[in-house]
Amino acid sequence: MQDEQLLLDGLALMGVGMGFVFVFLTILVLATTLMSLVVRRLAPPPASPATAPTSTTPSAKDDAEIMAVISTAIHRYRQRR
Fold this sequence. Notes:
Elements lengths: L1 H41 L17 H21 L1
């Protein structure tokens, strides 16, 4: 009889604990959802997206300049070794 009573008390305690956690998490989700709605309502409207600068294709002059810089860097690196 003693063992059965302890088992029933344990199961009741487990049910209360699990119920408490379930209720707490439900309230937490509801509070987070409500706060999200309030922030969306009070937040300023999003700024209109600025026009992105048009990307231009690099010209041959830019390529030649980049090649010269890379060549100079490689030459200096090899001289230090």
